[in-house]
Sequence to fold (534 residues):
Amino acid sequence: MDYLYHPFPSKRQTVFSKKGMVATSQPLASQAGLDILQKGGNAIDAAIATAATLTVVEPTSNGIGGDAFALVWVKDQLHGLNASGPAPESISIEALKERGHDKIPVHGVLPITVPGVPAGWAALSERFGKLPFAEVLEPAIRYAEEGYPLTPVLGKFWKRAHAQFMKYEGEKEFAEWFKTFAPGGKAPEIGEMWSSEAHASTLRKIAETKSRAFYEGELADKIDQFMKEHEGYLTKEDLAKFEVEWVDPISTNYKGYDVWEIPPNGQGLVALTALNIYNHLCEPVWQSAETMHCQLEAMKLAFTDGQAFITESEEMPISVEHLLSEQYAKTRAAKVGSEAHEPAPYELPGSGTVYLAAADEEGNMISYIQSNYMGFGSGVVIPDTGIALQNRGHDFKLDPEHPNALKPGKRTYHTIIPGFLTKEGKAVGPFGVMGGYMQPQGHFQLVTNTIDFLLNPQAALDVPRWQWIEGKTVRVEPEFPNHLAQALERKGHKIEVDVDGGSFGRGQAIWRDPETGVLRGGTEARTDGAIAVW
Fold:
């Protein structure tokens, strides 16, 4: 692929290297991955090291108690890992309604599902890693023990989270969160050192047992005890029976490039169906209101269907194959006119995250994402462990007729999605944009910026973004061109400028030149992103 430096004022320049590259939202985490590459590890080892370090140096977005997904390119083949955990076996719609809930709360013990992150690290290491698992986790343990200074964007989100959690101050269920993440009664400041010996001890136990201590040993017992004390549903039996799933990635071909995602229960399908619908609407023109109108209409149709239908694959009322079909794309594209419309779900035929990318000289590449969801997740931290647990169960529905209805042992609709790009059977590279329901919208914009407008990976990430919210409402970044916003308003879109600028995702991308093997990487100016190279 040839990359033009399009006349858009990029905030950073694309980074080049040959022997290895690690891109993520925290400089220390990227460096941890590079250190592992330089010790003889491969891209998968580097990704595990980076991911483990991110639980320490960016706890505002992820943790040991979250979920993970990965797309791994090894020996000219793409592998998919689903390390998302199910609902506890003892939970049910009836049980929650008896406790007075008409929807699953955001915080506390009720939305907690089985964490998949530790098992995902171990599975990646066992199948594809070169170095011992314990060695790969050493950088994360060191940062947890010795501490590190907060970076600017990290400090901003940490302070925001602390303000949100203040409503729980004094409640026993959240006491450990304040003890761990607000020592001295406040969030740490930008530049201030933060450490967690409990987090380091937990990582060491995970390293020594290849993650089994989390699911069957001392850590599982502590989680089980806390849940019983606070009337939660997650048990050590739920933890012990958990296994990751290796899956076949799904894809669509967009103008000669294969765009790959993890299949449901992830929402990557939304990005693929949006690309298919968009491909039937208009010829892309750079910074054109008509092009952006087509993009927005394609995305809102794909997203409306995704939220109506996506859940565990076997429980979806419509097949992935049909949603990726030409018939579906044409049918949905026919709904698009010259004006913004209110989307309705497709009629059934007779449904806080960290991202990293890594690559090595051998050709291995990995697209990896993990999250606790909504910042610090449930707000529950298991005492003396540093384990902050996710709140993924919040996305389940308490309507038994909904495809994503809560059931014991079921995995929910999942927002976190890694992406990967290939062409004619060769790897182009990993990409991802973190950020809840922004993620498929970020994937869509990154892919179209790259393929339609030939932007290099850094410029493709830097382009001001839009985000469809609901109905005709579209949120844009402050840097979004005003003339385009006005033109979209004339087409019936309700444009809102997000002056805070915190909801548009934070992404990374690494492309490989198929002839020379040279790596080209981009990272976000929207976060403390950094690319470590060798």
Summary: The chain has 19 helices and 21 strands. The first strand starts at residue 15 and ends at 17.
